[in-house]
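[agent] plan:
  1. take the single chain provided in the ticket
  2. run structure prediction with default settings
  3. attach structure tokens to the ticket
  4. add a short note for the reviewer (M.T.)
[agent] executing step 1
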Amino acid sequence: MEHRRWTALVVLCMGVLMVVVDQTIVNVALPAIQRDLGFTQSGLAWVVNAYLIAYGGLLLLAGRLGDLLGRKRVFVAGLILFTLASILCGLSENRTLLVVARFVQGLAGAGSGSVILGMIVTMFPDPREQGRAIGIFSFVAATGGSIGLLAGGILTQTLSWHWIFLVNVPIGILTVLAALRLVDDEPGLGIDRGADVAGAALVTSSLMLGIYTIVETDQYGWLSAHTLGLGALALVLFGAFLARQATAREPLVPLRVFRGRTLVGANLTAAFMVVGFFSFFFLGTLYLQRVLQYDALQIGLAILPVPTVIGALSLRASAQLNIRFGARNVLLTGLGLSLFGLVWLARAPVGGTYLVDILPSMLLLGFGAGIAFPALMTLAMADATPSDAGLASGLISTTQMVGGALGLAVIVTVAASRTASLLAAGASQAAALTGGYHLGFDIGAVLLGASILVAATVIAPPDRRGEGAAAPHAAWDAD
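[agent] step 2 finished; step 3 output follows
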């Protein structure tokens, strides 16, 4: 039984690895896709945006469906649909089919990805085992982006862009077969316990419309009628969703889950924290590519220290630190290290060298993320009851996705504006790009600082028994 649980964890991690890798592997292949299928620059963005809109919009609903229908069923169904959509992506010979297939991939990724953390928490109720399991999950989730960059470069250069999608097919089939055999089937609460079709429609349409509005700001601008109008509509829909949850007999998201001070603090921290790391991966990759002239494979190798350090810490050390010092204290330490890493990267010059200007920031960010992400996931699930584990898992995933999309859109827009102004002032292309990236890193660092402030003031401190790693934290009125 003991061996079976840890083997099942490997299966769940394979599922999350497919989802996370797919979010970044396509970025390296975008020039080849544009050349082969004749995308315009704005049209090419939809190869990424179609996935993000579907994934971010459905996470919360998918997490709750896991509680109602059974998390294993939702996980397996998501994997099957993801594999089929990957086949469509890989075989696409026209623009429309690829964008539609990417949207379906996003739907499927939300289904499988939203319930994994909830399954892990219920599989490993013991605090020490749970901390180690969440550490492994966090390692896979945090390193998946770098693996995607490396794999995307290799597959695109040696085969073709079609294979960045087709490689999912054998992995998906094996993961489905292993999940059916090794992951225990837990009965759901029943669809009659919380279907809340109206609430599901409101929150899904609100999140999808909000993410669509965010990702289109680079084309329309932040103060355009398009952005302000659709953004206001998304807020109205979300407000209607909250009103519905306060009055529905069986709400999709019971508002009682927000009584937990730790859950609220963890989600707020995640919203700020993930932007800092997104700014590193996105702008850092562009700095290596467009300023230092690294190719796709060199970029993957250059970023490799980050997942390596994360892996070394996440697999064992992070869980032990959570038990010893409390997840909140470990989170604060990890965020502090990450902040220093991003500040270091913000000083990288036009002619930067890897050992002096890049590697130190990689190591600091790797150490920071390696202990911060497992601690954050532990805190995000600390208040969840077994019946709400899928909801809590979907909630933290949604917070990271929406926060990351919004923050990255702001950072990219501001960085591009800074680059344009420097070019207009007569700066060289490399100097202007570097100046824009510096400003983006600075904003990411400020948001990491905000995440430290939230974690220090909102998240409940560890109890005096030293059970801060996985024990439920106090509610707002318990301090």
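[agent] step 4 note for reviewer: The chain has two domains: 2-195+250-478, 196-249.
[agent] ticket updated
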